[in-house]
Each structure stands twice: as C-alpha cells, then as structure tokens.
Write a structure and sequence with these properties.
It is a single chain. By secondary structure, this protein is mainly alpha-helical. It folds into 2 domains: 96 residues, RNA polymerase sigma factor, region 2, helix turn helix motif (Rna Polymerase Sigma Factor, Chain: A); 96 residues, Arc Repressor Mutant, subunit A (Orthogonal Bundle). 66% of the residues lie in helices and 0% in strands. It is built from 10 helices and no strands. Helix 2 crosses helix 4, helix 8 crosses helix 10 and helix 9 crosses helix 10.
Amino acid sequence: MDFADRDSPSSEELIKNCIKKDKRAWDIFVERYSKVVFWAIRDRLKRFGYNFDEGDIEDIHQDVFISLWSDNKLAQVKDRSRVAGWLAMVAGNAAIDYFKKMKRQSPPNSLSLYEEIYKSGDGGDKTLEDVLPSQDAGPGKRAHLNDIFELVDSAINSLKPKEKIVVKLNLLHGMRHRDIAEALKMPVNTVSTTIARAKEDLKVKLRRKGIKDLS
C-alpha cells in the first residue's frame, strides 16, 4: 500500500517522508504532534517563571515547526519510534531561546531536574527538598543534591527504551497519561502501568542510597 493511502502511518514512516519533503506526510506529522509541542512550550515557560500569553505560545509553536521543516531537523532524530520525547525537548528549548532572543529575558527561575521530577506527573507537587532527609544548608547539602541528581538521572536512563520515553514525558515534561497515550499511540492503561512500575523501580534504587520516600 502506498504511503498516501495509509490512514495512520507510523512515526518512522512519517519522518522518513517528511525528510523527503512530502507535504501530506508533513500535514499528518503536524496534526499528530502539535499537542506535544504546545504542551512542552507552555510547561517549560511555566516552570521557569516567565510571564507569557497565548500569542507567545503560538509564535514559538510556529517557529518550532518551521525550523523542523525548513532546516530538515527531523533527520537528526535517532530513534524515530520515540519522536514525541525528542520534540518535547526541542520545543522546550525553543521556548527559552524565544524569550532570550525576542524579549531579551533570561529565565526568572532555574529548576533542577529533581525539582522537575517531583513537581511533574499527574498532580504531584513534591520537590526534591520535600523528600530528601533533613540537612543543614550549605556546600555539603548542595554536594549531596548533586549526588542524588546523578543517581536519578542514571536510574531513568537504565529503564527499557519504551519505559524511558514514557517516564520522561510524564516525570520530566509533566504530560498526563492520556496525552502520552495519544502521542505514542499506546493504550492509556499501558502508559499508566509503565509509569507506576518505573516509579517503583526508582523508589527501590533511591532507597538503597538512603532516600526514604518518592511519591
């Protein structure tokens, strides 16, 4: 069956044809992943404390897709079956660059990976500071936080490829289960189960290093 006749081409097929400048493939790609890009832009700006309006979101969204098409950036995607996570990263970075270049603003706040993990997910609002054992402020505490940073990053990267992208979209980018399921074309129950299992795995690994709670 020819690509033009397919109702729901895979992400690999879409990217392959977008790189070839197939307009129909591009239209499908934009429609399929617009929600991920919109979400990642809004999420990144909120996390870094920018004051923005819907006009800013629309401008950044347009810039992201124009850049993907005109600069053929989809050719950079290494794992085309998991393009949603790559897009979320690109869109988030584009949001910060937009404010630096167009509005000459640096991020009002700087959140660590850990703060993002504990503030993200379906309704969670804990930060790393909330779950770490109590310590005195100072260089020693900062060094300890850096150690934990490396541990969590390593734990996430040790997950299976499919689990890793689901967990990153949820914990690092804050996407809700149903949005991840839609973006990755997976059953929402599978997404929820994957996230729950991955969180339990992270809990075990963190507790081995003295972290007693991760919710």
